Amino acid sequence: MASISPASEQMAISLRGVHKHFGALHAVDGVDLDIPPGELFGLIGHNGAGKSTLFKMMLGLLAPTAGSILVAGTPVGGRHFRAARRQLGYLPENVVLYDNLDGLETLHFFARLKGAPLQDCPAMLEKVGLAHAGKRPVREYSKGMRQRLGFAQALLGKPRVLFLDEPTNGLDPQAIRDFYATLRDLQAGGVTVIITSHILAELQERVDRLAILASGQVQAVGSVQELRERTGLPLIVEVDMAPEDCHEALHALLATTGAKPAQTPTGLQLQCARTHKMAVLAALAPLGARVRDLRLQEPSLEDMFFGLSA
Ligand SMILES: Nc1ncnc2c1ncn2[C@@H]1O[C@H](COP(=O)(O)OP(=O)(O)OP(=O)(O)O)[C@@H](O)[C@H]1O
């Protein structure tokens, strides 16, 4: 059994040497992870990478084959975990709802299971934008409404740690904005959020840090910026200019970055090291207004994901 250090106890979530085997399949294969309180943490990985299995172990729903897990300072599966579990909120990937209950009855049902006050339920419906639908049976809810209701049940009991498995599935763009605004409010109150999503562009702008999981192992952990630095993927520079100016710009860029730009219908395109960003600007400065437009494209989370999880 891996040991738990005092530093681990300061963490909202701390995993040491965590494995989960299903027969010969190593669904989670030696994961170490620390998530401090108040962090919005993303967990990404291909289908079958082990994200949901990891979630279920952190929630005490599945016992690890090996390793130790602390959530909210309490060993998962230990004798104090039952009480600590009240501090956790969970939105599963496929939330199970009873079609014959209405929205408010659904929340009452989950509140009873969690030991949360029933009088909080109307406010939770309001928080997820379902106040108007509280008396409608869940069978009439759209996919996005069901997902919002699932989020509302996860928020019952004022959890200190929230586990959200693909929470924005089925949400429209406005609902996704509202959802992340709610998460930011919760974070400001010290709530830790761990979230999975396959929509990498959405996470890229919002998480504080993330882990890339592949075949049950953590391939990289850090902020999007830290992962950019670590992967060393190139910066893409697009310069719009008249064809007669391209020759001069091409030579200036080649001399400062060592990378040869390609000519495009609208000007030049260059792939160069991220550390050459300022050199690119310096090389183009003498051309002044002859540079009609300039776009610098940093590697996206998707680029890094393919680089690190392959
Ligand atoms: N109860 C189980 N019995 C056997 N194998 C399982 C069980 N639960 C999960 N697995 C296997 O463990 C691996 C990890 O599954 P998991 O659901 O954790 O992946 P995931 O990263 O959440 O995938 P997805 O993005 O598709 O939701 C998969 O190969 C899956 O088939």
Tell me which CATH architecture of the largest domain applies here.
3-Layer(aba) Sandwich
Low-pLDDT stretches are: none
> Largest sheet at a glance?
6 strands, mixed
Outline, from the CA principal axes?
Answer: elongated
Q: Quick one: CATH superfamily of the largest domain?
A: P-loop containing nucleotide triphosphate hydrolases
| Helix proportion range | 25-40%
Q: What is the chain-wise order of helices and strands?
A: HEEEHEEHEHHHEHEHEEHEHEEHEH
Strand content: 25-35%
For the record, the count of structural domains works out to 2
Q: Pairing-aware structural class of the strands and helices?
A: alpha/beta
Bound molecules: adenosine-5'-triphosphate
What is the subunit organization of this protein? Answer: single chain
Per the CATH scheme, the topology name of the largest domain is Rossmann fold
By DSSP (H or I, 4+ residues per run), the number of helices equals 12
CATH class of the largest domain reads Alpha Beta
**What is the first-to-last residue Cα distance?**
30 Å
Name the average pLDDT.
92
Computed Rg: 24 Å
The number of E-state strands comes to: 14
Pfam families: ABC_tran
EC number: 3.6.3.25
Family: Belongs to the ABC transporter superfamily.
Keywords: ATP-binding, Cell membrane, Hydrolase, Membrane, Nucleotide-binding, Transport
